[in-house]
Amino acid sequence: MTATAAPLDLLLLPSWLVPVEPAGVVLKAHGLGIRDGRIAFIGPREAALKLASKETRELPGMLLSPGLINAHGHAAMSLFRGMADDLPLMTWLEKHIWPAEAKWVDEAFVRDGTDLAIAEQLKGGITCFSDMYFFPKVASDCVHNSGMRAQIAIPILDFPIPGAASADEAIRQGIELFGDLKHHPRIKITFGPHAPYTVCDANLEKIRIIAEELDASIHMHVHETASEVQQAVDQTGERPLARLGRLGLLGPRFQAVHMTQISEDDLALLVESNTSIIHCPESNLKLASGFCPVERLWQAGINVAIGTDGAASNNDLDLLGETRTAAMLAKAVAGSATALDAHRALRMATLNGARAMGLESEIGSLEVGKAADMVAFDLSGLAQQPIYDPVSQLIYATGRDCVKHLWVAGKQLLDDRRLTRMNEPELVASAIEWGRRISGRNE
Ligand SMILES: [Zn+2]
């Protein structure tokens, strides 16, 4: 760096810096400098301290990593958290979630539910999330105002949904929103056909053509349960993933959420098409949907990211906890304690999510030139001692209550666990009020 370079806006000096790329590296006594919302410097502490900076912050006992990326969820469903638990997927959807959505979901619901989800995620170390829910324009307004980063998938189903009377109307709205937000620095619009069993071939073909024209991604629930696959095979003789392949949807722009059922043919199709998979272990566990074979996919070279799914089926948006579950579950499913080690688990929760969303050149790792999306975890508590490998401690011994500070594009959105742009007591009061209305309680 030359002496004439502009001063840094902020210099951070954590105890450990985990860039994620290169893989497996933990830097001690290093600093990270930010200028104009981007990472401008990573280097040894002595060199860092020689640089001019408008603000310097020591982060003793803290681990600085890329912000966590929650690659699948339904943000506004946070207002249905705990409304219907301990039920199989189709009963849960058909008897509880879909009727409640028909009755309650409007623009105000989506605004309040999305704000609640954004605040919960920021406090949990998440800097970027993927959303798939009704009134996507309202959700993008929430993301814009919050300072957070997100991928917003336009929900498309064959039947009418809140905010769109038909699949064609949903697609039209999606194209319009895509155009409006094409240059937004923090919001990416994608297309979200709900699932193979709710979207017909004709609509999937329309979505494929539009996504190709716009160079947009497609985000879809696929092979969530064994019965979904079995039903499709009984009715058509074809597995849903094979159908998506035949229709030309699979590819680097395609994000297949869940994938608990993977045959040898499915695996070959995923590898050949370079499709990303979004693994949602706790939702799959809670709905007894099945197990995504993460280690097998990883060994095959498939990009696997991780998501919490909606709070109605999880019941939290805790990606750090989700990552710990994923690391444990991968070992049980693979029958090998070496499956998905802590460093790879962190990579899955950061860079792999960025890659799934096509944002890997922008976020997902701490590298000079990338957006300054970062989280500082406080590892100074007794539950983390002693520290041999801070990444191991982060994944296996640390909860999201240890998230101390968080930045998106260099802007601090969480400072000493306090939200800087959102009013936490108001969000809590609003959620309580929605719960009261939805459950019909008057107390
Ligand atoms: Zn989902």
TrEMBL record:
The keyword Nucleotidyltransferase does not apply. Gene3D superfamilies: Metal-dependent hydrolases, Urease, subunit C, domain 1. CDD domains: ATZ_TRZ_like. Residues 64-412 form the Amidohydrolase-related domain. It comes from the Bacteria. InterPro entries: Amidohydro-rel (IPR006680), Metal-dep_hydrolase_composite (IPR011059), Metal_Hydrolase (IPR032466), MTA/SAH_deaminase (IPR050287). Belongs to the metallo-dependent hydrolases superfamily. ATZ/TRZ family. This is Cytosine/adenosine deaminase. It comes from Pseudomonas palleroniana. The lineage of its organism: Bacteria, Pseudomonadati, Pseudomonadota, Gammaproteobacteria, Pseudomonadales.
